[in-house]
Specification:
single chain; alpha+beta; six-stranded mixed β-sheet; five-stranded antiparallel β-sheet; 27% strand; globular
């Protein structure tokens, strides 16, 4: 059974520069050593984000809009966790590796529960702002990430890993009572307003 893919936005033509788009370079025929070398050269800087899947390397610099959506989603998840007394820890672009096969740096990721020593996050979040690039679901399948969210076209898609394959899910395993449509409805608001109004909406539902 094929892995379900998030529906991509319109493609950017090769060589086309659009200020609001993510900037991406793809390198084919790259070894794992090549991937590790790029990570070492970048050092502690946050960009470019570097991904790898079986011989193909991706370097991506997210746009301002991409980073804004990532930040808003993360902070609203944390508001939800505070209101519902859920223990979680954010690790943003944690460099995740399956040596020789796959590597990624998600837009956001979380570990749930009191044990923060896990070798992998429980939940990874990717913002699909510009089409193209590596198959992130296949990367996260190789990394054995139990749940992946894609924000795309103003909604969040949930993909749950079951028996080694991702399946679309109606709700999150880790945050099963979270109304994702409600969360997304606050993403177009100013930051402080979004947090305040989302918190108020949660309290009205409690």
């Amino acid at each position: 059974m094929a892995i379900p893919q998030p529906h991509p936005p319109p493609a950017i033509r090769p060589g086309e520069y659009i200020p609001t788009a993510d900037q991406r370079v793809i390198v084919h025929g790259a070894s794992w050593a090549h991937y590790e070398a790029h990570l070492a050269m970048r050092g502690e800087r946050s960009v470019p984000r570097i991904s790898y899947l079986r011989g193909t390397l991706e370097l991506m610099s997210p746009s301002r809009g991409h980073e804004r959506i990532t930040s808003w989603i993360g902070r609203l998840i944390e508001v939800y966790a505070e209101e519902r007394d859920i223990q979680l820890a954010p690790y943003r672009s944690w460099t995740l590796k399956h040596p020789g096969e796959a590597g990624a740096e998600p837009d956001e990721c979380y570990v749930f529960g009191a044990d923060e020593t896990k070798e992998r996050p429980d939940l990874v979040i990717e913002v699909v702002w510009t089409s193209g690039g590596l198959d992130k679901l296949e990367i996260y399948r190789a990394l054995e990430i139990t749940e992946v969210w894609f924000w795309i076209d103003e909604r969040i898609e949930v993909h749950a890993l079951r028996a080694g394959r991702y399946e679309r899910a109606d709700r999150s395993r880790w945050l099963p009572e979270l109304d994702l449509a409600l969360l997304c409805s606050f993403l177009d608001r100013p930051f402080v307003d979004a947090k305040r109004e989302f918190r108020a909406a949660l309290r009205r539902r409690s």
